[in-house]
Specification:
The chain has 123 residues and is mainly alpha-helical. It contains 4 helices and no strands. It has helices at 3-26, 36-50, 71-91, 93-122. Helix 1 packs antiparallel against helix 2 (36-50), helix 1 (3-26) packs across helix 3 and helix 3 runs antiparallel to helix 4 (93-122). The chain is globular.
Length: 123
């Protein structure tokens, strides 16, 4: 498996863990199980990751210049991330550290990704 595919899988795992942490704390979720609202948000987030126009060169969503989430779901995921983000380092340190590293690497990667996207659009 190449690192980009691994990065996408890690991003999916990270979003699942963040939603699980939030759900357990706010919706009386059972450990590892999501309520229907959180499950729907997770499926939506997964679909966004799968359909990202950047594909394997996908930056973290926070650093992306194209916001593909609907306004309602973007607000929901922001709430989840605000709650879960600080807790991830204690509960899932490897995922949290990898996410921080990927976010830092995005700043170098985004201009190259955007140039490639513009070039594809001109064809």
């Amino acid at each position: 498996m190449n690192t980009q595919k691994g990065q996408i899988l890690r991003e999916k795992a990270t979003i699942l863990k963040m939603i699980q942490l939030y759900c357990e704390a706010h919706h009386s979720g059972i450990h590892g199980k999501l309520c229907s609202d959180c499950e729907q948000l997770y499926f939506y987030a997964n679909a966004r990751i799968n359909n990202c126009i950047y594909g394997e060169e996908k930056p973290t969503c926070q650093n992306c210049i194209i916001h593909c989430y609907s306004a309602n779901n973007r607000e929901k995921i922001k709430i989840v991330m605000r709650y879960s983000g600080p807790r991830m380092i204690y509960k899932f340190p490897i995922l949290a550290i990898n996410h921080i590293i990927n976010k830092a690497a995005d700043k170098k990667k985004i201009p190259k990704i955007e140039a490639a996207r513009i070039k594809k659009m001109k064809k």
